[in-house]
């Protein structure tokens, strides 16, 4: 098995399946020369809202191709993705990465199935998810600096305040503040003040990125496009926001209750550092949680605004951005209210 990372000068088509598979075979002829080209079987899984994902299999071995969507480099730092992925693979948190082509990556296959939203809401999974997040945060080293606010500012630079479509422009002007940069700065000041610890984070733990292996009963995470050092509590808060689902308009009434969130944080701390697990730490994390939920909502709201102008995928990013922005305001006000109350 070749393990050295390889680069291939091929573009995989997002529109033509035949052309896409021809290019994939050309790559596999070099990556897996022992495979018989005519016997390679392809299976498509695309569930992400930015990529095309499929597997190529020969005999019992499979590799995964991830083809990047058009214009996704505006919201995803591809160099960072490869660096983060290789670091995670080294520590046992990601499938091996075999190589890259002009518009995507080839990696190993993780056994298991992505969770469904009903499963993610099942309390039996909460502990396993909390445990895996804790293991990730405890295992992968970082320099202790987070990039989350820098990333938001980078997204903002990609956003044109003028939408080409008049209806979209009106919606944007009506539902979003003129100065989004000021919102980022406002949140950043409070987050820095919280002094929450930084860890290596996944930053995108929605249902499709959580894989459960029924045989080993283990939870694994996939898709490291947004993985970078961040506040550990951001990773948890962002995960909590995703119980609302991603298909169509998110339903935030489906998010975990206060008690469920408390239990999740309790499990997380128990698995991360049982010796220093105490009520004081629990209460501090719980107090700061709405602020970090607000931060995650703001991140994805701005991300979705950029996608609304650039993505070729049939998804209503503008309505999604609005749903996230409304939640940002709600969670932020909740945090401010609770701080002023004490």
Automatic annotation (TrEMBL):
<keyword id="KW-0444">Lipid biosynthesis</keyword>
<dbReference type="GO" id="GO:0004305">
    <property type="term" value="F:ethanolamine kinase activity"/>
</dbReference>
<keyword id="KW-0594">Phospholipid biosynthesis</keyword>
<dbReference type="GO" id="GO:0005737">
    <property type="term" value="C:cytoplasm"/>
</dbReference>
<dbReference type="Pfam" id="PF01633">
    <property type="entry name" value="Choline_kinase"/>
</dbReference>
<dbReference type="InterPro" id="IPR011009">
    <property type="entry name" value="Kinase-like_dom_sf"/>
</dbReference>
<protein>
    <recommendedName>
        <fullName>ethanolamine kinase</fullName>
        <ecNumber>2.7.1.82</ecNumber>
    </recommendedName>
</protein>
<keyword id="KW-1208">Phospholipid metabolism</keyword>
<keyword id="KW-0443">Lipid metabolism</keyword>
<comment type="similarity">
    <text>Belongs to the choline/ethanolamine kinase family.</text>
</comment>
<dbReference type="GO" id="GO:0006646">
    <property type="term" value="P:phosphatidylethanolamine biosynthetic process"/>
</dbReference>
<comment type="pathway">
    <text>Phospholipid metabolism; phosphatidylethanolamine biosynthesis; phosphatidylethanolamine from ethanolamine: step 1/3.</text>
</comment>
């Amino acid at each position: 098995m070749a393990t050295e990372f390889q680069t291939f000068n091929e573009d995989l088509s997002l529109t033509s399946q035949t052309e896409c598979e021809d290019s994939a075979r050309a790559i596999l002829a070099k990556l897996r020369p022992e495979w018989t080209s005519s016997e390679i079987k392809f299976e498509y899984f695309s569930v992400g809202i930015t990529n095309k994902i499929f597997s190529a299999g020969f005999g019992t071995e499979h590799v995964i191709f991830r083809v990047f969507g058009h214009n996704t480099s505006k919201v995803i730092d591809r160099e960072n993705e490869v660096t983060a992925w290789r670091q995670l693979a080294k520590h046992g948190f990601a499938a091996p990465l075999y190589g890259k082509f002009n518009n995507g990556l080839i990696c190993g296959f993780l056994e298991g199935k992505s969770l469904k939203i009903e499963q993610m809401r099942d309390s039996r999974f909460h502990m396993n998810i909390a445990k895996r997040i804790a293991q990730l945060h405890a295992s992968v080293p970082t320099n202790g600096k987070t990039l989350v606010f820098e990333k938001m500012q980078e997204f903002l630079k990609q956003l044109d305040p003028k939408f080409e479509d008049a209806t979209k422009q009106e919606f944007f002007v009506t539902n979003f503040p003129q100065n989004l940069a000021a919102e980022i700065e406002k949140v950043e000041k409070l987050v820095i003040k919280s002094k929450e610890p930084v860890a290596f984070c996944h930053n995108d733990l929605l249902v499709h990125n959580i894989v459960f292996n029924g045989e080993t009963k283990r939870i694994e995470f996939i898709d490291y496009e947004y993985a970078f050092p961040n506040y550990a509590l951001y990773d948890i808060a962002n995960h909590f926001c995703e119980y609302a689902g991603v298909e169509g308009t998110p339903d935030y009434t489906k998010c975990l209750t206060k008690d469920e969130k408390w239990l999740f944080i309790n499990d997380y701390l128990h698995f991360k550092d049982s010796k220093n697990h105490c009520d004081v730490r629990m209460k501090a994390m719980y107090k700061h949680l709405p602020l970090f939920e607000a931060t995650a909502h703001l991140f994805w709201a701005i991300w979705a605004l950029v996608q609304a102008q650039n993505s070729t995928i049939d998804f209503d990013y503008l309505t999604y951005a609005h749903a996230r922005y409304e939640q940002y305001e709600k969670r932020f006000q909740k945090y401010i209210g609770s701080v002023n109350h004490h």
